[in-house]
Amino acid sequence: MESQTAVVQALLGLGYIAYQQGKFDDAIRRYTEVVQQDMAGIAEAHHNIGRIYAGRGEIEKAVTAQQHAIAEDPNLAEAHYHLGILYSRKQDWQTAIAAYQKTIALTPTMPNAYYQLARCYQQTGDRLETEKAMQRFRALKAADTEIQEQLEVVFVADTDEKAEALLQLANTYLKHERYEKATHAFKRIGKYSTSDIHTAQVSAGLARVALEQGHPKQAVPHYERAIVLGLETAEIYHNLGIAYMQNRDAENALKQLHRALEINANLPETLTMLGTLYAAKNKFDEAETHYERAIMLAPKAAMAYHGLAYLYGQHNQNLEKAVELARHATKLSPDSAPYYNTLSWLCYKIRKYDAAETAILKAIELAPDNPLYQEGLAEIRQREK
Q1: What is the pLDDT of residues 271-318, one digit of tens each?
Q2: How many whole angstroms separate alpha carbon 35 and alpha carbon 44?
């Protein structure tokens, strides 16, 4: 197995060297040898063959090669990206868009994929999607610039400054959702500092990586270690509370969120989460109090308006007010299908069936594959008869 891997790497390397030297036929021969011997690395070989054909202007052969690469490895983002470029050259904009969307699904931080996607949407006349893709492209390019600046700071930092520089780099990666690189940077800090504060900051950073990647069970011990080492901030307690919520440990979640408020009483997100927890425990007064406090502190916090509206609906209280709260939530977050569904449900409760239908149709427009919304629409129309 090791010898086969070495052969593959050698052939791929020789193919790359030939490609760089402009010896394209030789490069294709090397890559084809990998394919013919049915070795690991077939997807990469097909992908590289496709790039050579594309450079020669042999578009159909290039398309076929990239399709072969994807058949071998459906998660090879570069193959999807180059397939998008090829379809763009063929002016097959919709197929190109699908290829770029797949690229983005696999690598959501690739700026060029968004740029090419914007160009395709522009060709189809879809101005809204063009601007959305361009905004994402600009944001990612700005992120790359910020990351590069932090990398340079790490590079020039003296040994006694390296830990702090790496911490800044890791948090920059985390800010821009580059989780693998953030983890690597956090773990490098231990080579330059073993102080409690740096160890605590590393633990908190690894906890955030785990939490944001959907692994709350892994996040909890990291946060708890950070606290033991003295890093007691409102943010740490809030995030630990969220981790417990996601682990369905409501009691510990309540404790941690209240600890966050003891440090800073003016945290609308923490108050909203407490409202949600109290609502789940059927404690109406506590839930209402926390939602109202969150709204007072953050008048544009859609989640708090929605939470309070849903609370009133569950308890059949203040239903007219609940409708206005839900409607305001949809204005603050117009792309949220669940918010429109809640608005529809509340309108239905007060027998405003036309408004209920309008809201549920918007929910369906935003999430056409949700069967619950279709059922809601059918029920509304049945009642209208």
Answers
A1: 999 999 999 999 999 999 999 999 999 999 999 999 999 999 999 999
A2: 10
